[in-house]
Amino acid sequence: MSSLLLLNGSPRGTRSNSMKMLTRVGEGWVHGGGDEPEVLHLALEQDRTRAVEAFGAADTVVLGMPLYADSMPGLVMGFIETLAPYVGREGNPRFGFLVQSGFPEALHSRPLERYLAKLATRLGCEYAGTIVRPGGEALQVMPDRANKKLWESLREVGKSLHVGGEFDSLVLSRIAGKERLSPTMVRVMSLASKAPVTEFYWNGLLKKNGAWGKRFDAPYASA
Amino acid sequence: MKITIFNGEPDASSEFDAYVHEVAAQMATSGHNVETIDLRDLDIKGCSGCWGCWAKTPGECVKRDDTEQTCRAVVHSDLVVLAAPMVMGFTSALLKRMADQMIPLVHPYGLIEGGEMHHRPRYEHYSLMGLLLGAGPDTDTEDIAITQKMWSRTARNLKTRLAFTSVADRPAKEVAHELATVA
User: Which residues of A touch B125 (CB under 8 A)?
Assistant: First the structure.
């Protein structure tokens, strides 16, 4: 009894940060002795249909997603709605989650984490925990080797999921990093009145797209 | 007062849908300028995280769908009411799909507010937000608290605040009156 279903809830599909992270969780699961996981992308229509059925057949499910407008993406909520028939069913899978956000602090993802824990309870699933990772957009710009520590931690929680039935909470807090900005960071960033790192990243994209001159456009300002 | 209701009820024949329209009618009777947008009738393509609205066509979704209408309403109303039935402990996916496409209203640039990183505003005015929930048979107080918490953070990142939350278990007239007095 060691089948794992990885559900990628990123609207970006296969080329997403959530998927990069889920892949490492799956690797850790296999290192721990689990079977090769099945991977489904909710952004793909055929996978979405299959996901509802696969959820019922799996022993363990990990649903990963980016934080969108401070909660789950609409795509993921649509999938959650289709899980309604599983509420209270005997033999529901163990259920764990992964939430990654572009904010530098973990606190932004905590209300969603609370929702997901309640969702597992509502379904009658054993809750395996939620991997919370801020600063996610950096994964798109940084070379893979720069994320070596993160990948290793994700493999660790994947392994603990197989061995102990839940994500190792110590490793989860390592992955989550800063809960909130330190007073020094707040002071420095407030003084600069902008976050230099973020500006650098976005300005680069704007220039590349020839949209630099339009960056302060407010197209809906006139009635 | 200009009040826009984003109706996230997918089922046009439900009791909650009738309730939302009754609240709208009551507010209009009191002399407010009320518009109800039934989200189920809009073409909402869904955010795919392409960052086009931040880095290609700043302020506008590259998909050019009907969320232009909901975005416009946020910067031209005094109050926006997010109305939706509760499904599996949260507001409907229909409402959330629309909300995901509100990010063109802010900048990708960061801003420190209350010691936290948030988005920088693109507009001078953002309407207040209200939440009107249609409770399901399995909805409990914790579901409502979690839902309220997530939407209040969404409102905060949209440079406004969630000023009202109610479940649709009270007379529409009462709720209409309270909504009209928050802004």
Answer: none
* Interface predicted TM-score (ipTM): 0.97
Nearest residue to A68 (alpha-carbon basis) of A150, A139, A9: A9
DSSP secondary structure of A90-154: TTPPEEEEEEE-SSSSGGGGHHHHHHHHHHHHHHTPPEEEEEEE--TTHHHHS-GGGGHHHHHHH
3-state SS class at A113: helix
**B27 Cα to chain A: minimum distance (Å):** 22
Its CATH class, for the domain covering B2-182, is alpha beta
Structural tokens at position A88: 């209270």
Write the residue in A118, A221, A223 that is nearest to B123 by C-beta: A221
- Residue pair B37/B69 in contact (Cβ under 8 Å)? The answer is yes
pTM for the complete prediction? 0.96
Cα–Cα distance, A129 to A116 (Å, whole number): 9
Note whether B46 contacts A71, CB cutoff 8 Å: no
Distance CA B120, CA A197 (A): 15
Residue found under tokens 């090769």: A36
The answer to whether B96 contacts A105, with C-beta atoms less than 8 Å apart, is no
Cα distance between residue A128 and residue A166, in whole Å: 4
Yes or no, beta carbons of B55 and A211 under 8 Å apart: yes
Note which residues in 42-71 of chain A have CB less than 8 A from chain B.
43, 66, 68-71
**Fold entry, domain A4-176:** Rossmann fold (3.40.50)
Mean pLDDT of the residues in chain B: 96
Choose the closest CB to A180 out of B47, B57, B116. B116
Q: How many CB atoms lie within 10 A of CB A216?
A: 10
Residue B134 has pLDDT above 60, yes or no: yes
Strand partners, A100: A66, A133
Per domain, the residue ranges of chain A are 4-176, 183-214
